[in-house]
Every structure is written in structure tokens, then in C-alpha cells.
Amino acid sequence: MNILSKIVIPLFVIFVIFYGFYKKVNIYDAFLEGAKEGLIITFNIFPSIIAMVFAINIFLDSNFVPEVLGLFKNFFNLVHIPLEIMPMALLRPISGTASLAIMNDIFITSGPDSYIGRLASVLQGCTDTTIYVLALYFSSIGIKKTRYALPVGLFADLIGITVAFLITSLLF
Amino acid sequence: MVSYIWFFLIGIGIIYSFLTGNLNAVNDSILTNGTKALELVMSILPIIVLWTGIMKIAEESGLLKKFASVVEPFLSKLFPDIPKGNAALGFIASNIAANMLGLGSAATPFGLKAMSELQKINPKKDTASRPMITFLVLNTAGVTLVPTTVLALRIAHGSANPSEIIMPGIIATFCSSLGGLLLDYIIRKKGSKL
Lengths: 172, 194
Prior knowledge:
heterodimer, A: 172 residues, mainly alpha, 9 helices, globular, B: 194 residues
């Protein structure tokens, strides 16, 4: 598993570059053009990151999570779920930036190689922001009645999050 | 939706700290937040830029198209309601392919085109059709082979092995997509008149 994880990126990079070279693409210029786009993307998400880091930190620093959610601590202990991950798991389907901000906070307090740090990493990578994607795609073509789209999307998220919990506690 | 969440987080945070007399912590938090946000952006910026650069090569060399054409036959089984040869399927394949490779920004335009193609064959224009829902379930499960932002943050915070979360992530996404598609399939079969 570990070796597989390590090999994905280098293999992928060499394959992409090799294929580009083989197809006689000007790979260096293409890279620069793409990198420029990446820069624009990052600057475009900057305001929402500021907004979310602001809100998330007020929420986390108020100690609401350990003190109020802490009342259910026994239950969370029973199922081996760290309390601090709950806000992230709940916010993941709604806002990618919000869960990113929480993950950042978890990395600062517990480090990326702690159990909760790994859990947060798997969680962030394993699903997309369902509610945002649904809103964007449906509103682009004027769909008002979304029928069973949201429940099925959230059900998929629930499975993803559950498997993320299971697999992290199994592997690490 | 996000407005509510934002309001909820800030509201609860400030009111709760008022009630518990913990206002100092929140005050500090508001004043030092900006730096945290900047550090966060700075740590994900290099990898995003690097990765979009690499992926631009994949796009221009036609690798993305090729990848999409590999996925397409599997997809047509998932979308029995899309007529053969309809452009929607190609866009869906490109969207999934781009998402898989961590090219979120390239994926969205394909996704929007797929939706407008699906809308053309949708009998009720204000109601989501079955293929639309299947597509969105597949899309929101977000099968990603390389989670660039997560990797960048792990590196920035000094992880000894930043990429160790890739395989567990892939397994989790896979299960999530499978579960979503299964439920979608069951609903389609049971309530075919819906």
C-alpha cells in the first residue's frame, strides 16, 4: 500500500511528460501555460479561504467543539472516532474550503502524521463538495426540481466518510 | 447555503465564547486569522501551480481525450437513457477523466457542457432527469487519483510521508462512488415512473 502510494505520482508525471514529448507537444510551454492558470485559480480561491479560515477559527477557538460536542465523548470513544474530526466530516459535503481550513488546523495542532491528521487527509481527498456541485450544475441549466439527487449524493458521501474512518484505523 | 454555514460558525463561535467568558481567545483568533489564511494559501499554491502545469501537457498532447475514450464504454452502461452517439457521453467522460487527474478547473466546463447536452434530451425542463442525477452522483463522489491540495498541506506541515494517504483515499472514493451508483440504480429500477 505504501509503495503503491509513493509510486502513483512519479509514474504519472513521467508518463504525461513522455506522452507529450512523443506527441511533439511543446511540453515546456504547455507547462508554463498551465502553471499560469494554476496561479489564477489559487488567487481566485484566496478570498474564500480568508473567509473560511476566519469563520472556522472563531468557531474552533470558542471551544464549542470540545465542551459541547464533548458531552457525547463516550459515544465517540466507543466507535473510535476522534471528536475533533466531526466538524470536518460534517462540513466536507458543503464547503471544500471550510473543511480545508479545519484540516489545516488539525495539522497545526496534531501534525499531518498523527492518526487524526491522516484521517483528515483521507477525508478531504475522498469526496467532493456535493451540495456546491449540485447547486452549480443544476442552476446552470435552470433545473428547479432536483428529485433524489441530493439524498443519493449525500449517501455516497456518508459511505466515503465511513470507509475513510475504517481504512484509516485499519492501516495506520 | 454557504452563507448559512458561515453565519452559523461565526455566530456560534462568538456567542458561545461570550457565554463562557472566553472572549480573549476569540479576539486573538480574529486578529491573527489573516496570517493563517495566507500561510494556507502559500502552502498549497506551489503544488497547484505545478500540477496544473503538468496537466496542461496531458491536455495538449491529447492524453486527457484518450483517457476519456477509455472510460466512455464503461460509462455508456451506467447511462442507459442517453441515446448512442449523443455528445453528452463524451463530455461526461472528459469530466470524469479530468476530475480523476486532479484537474478540477478543467473538469467543470466539461461538466457544464454535459449538463446542457442532457438538458436537450430532457422531457421536463425544470426537473432533473435520471442521467443527470447519475452523472452528478458520479461527479460529487469525486474520484481523484492525486489530491493535490492535501499533499501540499501535508508537505507544508512536515509530513514524513505525504503521499501515504493516496491509496486509502482512492479506496474510500471508490466505495463512495460505488455506493452512490448502487443506490441511484435501485431508485431508477424501483421508481421508473418517477
